Amino acid sequence: MSDIAIRANHLGKQYRLGALYEQRYRTLRESLGSLFRRDERKSHETIWALRDVSFEVKQGQVLGVIGRNGAGKSTLLKLLSRVTEPTEGEAEIHGRVGSLLEVGTGFHPELTGRENIFLNGAILGMRRTEIERKFDEIVAFAEVEQFIDTPVKRYSSGMYLRLAFAVAAHLEPEILVVDEVLAVGDAEFQRKCLGKMGDVAREGRTVLFVSHNMSAILRLTEETLVIEKGRLALRAPTPQAVDYYLSRGFAREGERIWEADEVPAASLPFRPLAVRLRNPRGEVVNSIRSAEANTIEVEYCLDAPITGLRVGIYLMSMRGETIFTSFDTDDPQVFEQMAVRPAGHYLSRCTLPADLLNEGRFVIGINASSYRVRRYFQDEQALTFSVDITGAPGTQWPETRLGAVRPRLEWTIEAV
Amino acid sequence: MAERVNTNVTYIRPARGWININLRDLWLYRELVYFLTWRDIKVRYKQAVLGIGWAIFQPVLSMVIFTVIFNRFLGVKPDAGIPNEFYPIFGFAALLPWQFFQGALQRASISLVTNANLLTKVYFPRLIIPLSAVAAGLVDFFFSFIVLAAMMIYFGVPFTSRLLWLPLFLLLALLAALAVGLWLSALNVQYRDVQHMVPFLLTAWMYASPVVYSAEVITVSPFWQAVYALNPMVGVIQGFRWALFGTNPPGLSMLVSAGVVLVLFVSGLFYFRRMERIFADMI
């Protein structure tokens, strides 16, 4: 008996482009038509969503999976949870797989909370006796006791989500596959979910955790897979993998450019064009000196005027902790002048003062929103850069200083 | 496709050739059949004032309409040996299995597409979906069966031991619906034309079955009776009427109908299993 939970061997999944995009399904007429005019339609273009992915997961290990959107993470999880089958390669799974590909799968709005717990539990592969045993625990975890006999269509989205996660979290499979459940829900509930996942891991069960939330990945996993363009790019201890991931995949160093097709339709009329980091000489760089003042600029277009718009940045550490948030209309006077920002092409620029950051790597995220109205666009990992401390305070001692910031404070020393 | 070799290890690899039916997984997930069936029934009658009463009104209303139009206006007669006044119960005996078959097939053929969100998110044996769509009709059948029993008392049709055959005929109707449902539901994943075609198919199928008329209209020869029974509902309906009235015992036609169901069922099962691997990608 080995202690392997998952062994993947050259897994690959090929999709036909036609099947993915313009033609989700065919009609009989089209199919019959293409039978007779075979050469008119070129052979379907295909794409490898995942190729040649091999890895092993030990029992009780919590493995992170990170990668950009469309890199193949979801395909990998779908293969492992048997939703779809591989085109090539094979995998070996020891034990029951519980997947949280999307919480609330199979919830029916007309059914009550109680009914949905049983239905959803059965869909996820639980036995009825198992659900009955855990019923009270699930209801308590979801905090929906009073509404348990109300149809879930009358639930708030928060209640709905809590109930859905509660069922899935009590599944107790040997292998738990989690995909982005934490992207939703309030902070309090996210903490609870993370806690529950930690419990699962402590009980010796295997967890495969896919997330864009780097701080959650860092907190919960020790080792992480980085998937890039359908390939396994790296398997490394999590801090190293996160570092690798964050420093890769940008069109040019020190700059993130959004191509037209990368902009989600939901963000319109706000269209992000680029974020750049410039040193005092105006060069676009991915490494700055702490002792100098540098500039961050956000370039964007407004296709229509926006009322109350604020465009800003987050500065975060590699561990995902926010160091600060700043918006271009933070100054109340500027905000009043800019009450309505007309359509046009803009550059919002700010100065990152000298003697602010400590050495290390940092992440810039951007956000464009109207307070309490709408969030147009957000990318929490638009850009990463590193800080060099040559000339910063205290560098005469070659030791590592803790902390994200390294301000030059005014000291006085008096003999008293 | 994945197959369980023992309870612990699952192998995931590309499917080659024909796939076995994987009864083991089906058995492991047997409770899901129950829950999905129960959901279908529950949801169907939610927010309907009459609720499950519809399971009774639908066949009763059809019976009234058929009796007025076909019996009173057009002069269609029941089987020889059954008095003309018995036409309502003669018709109802056929409507009972027919409406079960019709409802089951309707739900089964669109079942995969309506459950697309499940197919693309979690694994379970896909067969469960058309299976529970068919099974959901059994509750309706049960309620309209009570109506049939009441009518038997009213018309003075004796309760004989022939009635014990009814479960077998019902099973044949269920398998027929499942067999065709397997084909149509899998085809519908790829070709949505199927769901537009089903209502017409069912209308034509009803007139090709002895629902409003007697199977005796096909009296040319045993050969033509056998050809007629290639429609499995012919055997089912004849069986129901025989169990009630004792006329026109189903012999050859029952065998032919059962044979057709078997062929459709086995081929449907294989087609379904073969297409199963692309459901999540195509739907």
Automatic annotation (TrEMBL), chain A:
Transmembrane region(s): none
Domain of life of the native organism: Bacteria
Listed CDD domains: ABC_KpsT_Wzt (cd03220), Wzt_C-like (cd10147)
Pfam families: ABC_tran
Keyword ATP-binding applies: yes
Domain ABC transporter: 35-254
One GO term describing the cellular component: membrane
SMART domains in the cross-refs: AAA (SM00382)
Family matches, as InterPro entries: AAA+_ATPase (IPR003593), ABC_transporter-like_ATP-bd (IPR003439), ABC_transpr_TagH-like (IPR015860), Bact_Polysacc_Export_ATP-bd (IPR050683), P-loop_NTPase (IPR027417), Wzt_C (IPR029439)
GO molecular function: ABC-type transporter activity; ATP binding; ATP hydrolysis activity
PROSITE patterns recorded: ABC_TRANSPORTER_2
Keywords: ATP-binding, Nucleotide-binding, Transport
Family named by the database record: Belongs to the ABC transporter superfamily.
Family matches, as PANTHER family: TEICHOIC ACIDS EXPORT ATP-BINDING PROTEIN TAGH
Name of the protein: ABC transporter domain-containing protein
Annotated source species: Bellilinea caldifistulae
TrEMBL record, chain B:
Subcellular location: Cell inner membrane; Cell membrane
Domain ABC transmembrane type-2: 50-275
Keyword Nucleotide-binding: no
UniProt keywords, alphabetically: Cell inner membrane, Cell membrane, Membrane, Transmembrane, Transmembrane helix, Transport
Pfam families: ABC2_membrane (PF01061)
InterPro entries for this protein: ABC2_TM, ABC2_TM_bact-type
Biological process terms in GO annotation: lipopolysaccharide transport
Keyword Cell inner membrane: yes
Gene Ontology cellular component terms for the protein in this record: plasma membrane
Main location: membrane
Domain of life per record: Bacteria
GO MF, one example: ABC-type transporter activity
Membrane topology designation: Multi-pass membrane protein
Family: Belongs to the ABC-2 integral membrane protein family.
Protein name, as recorded: Transport permease protein
